[in-house]
Amino acid sequence: MFFMLTAKFFQRDVLIVARDLIGVELHWRGCSGIIVETEAYAVEGDEACHTASRPSAREFVRTQPPGAAYVYLNYGMYWLFNLLVKDGPRDGLILIRALEPVGGIAKMKRRRGKERVKDLCSGPGKLAMALGITGADHGTPMCGRSVPVGTGLRLPRAGSSHNVSADVRVGISKAAKHPWRFLAHGNPHVSVPHGKVKSPR
Rounded mean pLDDT of the chain? Predict the structure, then answer.
């Protein structure tokens, strides 16, 4: 039996939620993968979070429920998939950085034009492309009764476990020293292995 995440899961501190998402299975319209890498962004006091510079992001946090999908276009090229955390000690947005593909792999390969499974979702832009996530999915509820058919977040399978490591976030210049990236240590599907993030110039 599978148990889906509820809103309470996202009503906690953003760092705790980001860590606890490792091992959760993301299902998206015929495709699925185990979350193996996340990044936390705090609504308050985090210069790297969209809420520090985008009024639309602050409005999203104010109006949307916990667990809602925050999807945005990065550098005009790649859609990135995030989840909203709110109503706990520290609100925030969590970027889903990498998945270990589980279901719908043939579909992912067609979308990505890649054959190696570890090349399909080993980065936030890659996984959005593999799953077919676009800006039209912004605001999609990912927990509760309003979750669309074929989507959702499932708790880890019985007996599964991951050694979770914390590391600095990838590709940012502000608040770059926060160890707010969480990853399944040693998993080949992560975007950047632990300890290998290049320091910003």
Answer: 95
Q: Is the pTM of this model over 0.70?
A: yes
pLDDT at 1: 43
Number of domains in the chain: 1
Cα atoms in the 13 Å half-sphere on the side-chain side of 82: 25
What CATH number did the domain enclosing 25 receive? 3.10.300.10
Among the residues of the chain, which ranges form H helices?
Answer: 14-20, 55-63, 105-112, 124-131
Q: Which residues partner with 94 through β-bridges?
A: 40, 83
The answer to whether residue 36 is domain-embedded is yes
The verdict on residue 113 lying in a domain is yes
Strand partners, 166: 182
What six digits make up the tokens of 97?
Answer: 């950085």
Span 158-178, average pLDDT: 89
73 within domain boundaries = yes
Q: Report the phi/psi class of residue 94: left, alpha or beta, with left for phi > 0 and alpha for psi in -120 to 50.
A: beta
Q: Which of 127, 76, 68, 73 is nearest to 92 (CA)?
A: 68
DSSP state, 74?
A: E
**73-91 residue pLDDT tens:** 998 899 999 999 999 999 9
Tokens linked to 77:
């090229």
Q: What is the DSSP string of 110-151?
A: HHHT--SGGGTSSSHHHHHHHHT--GGGTT-B-SSTTPPTTE
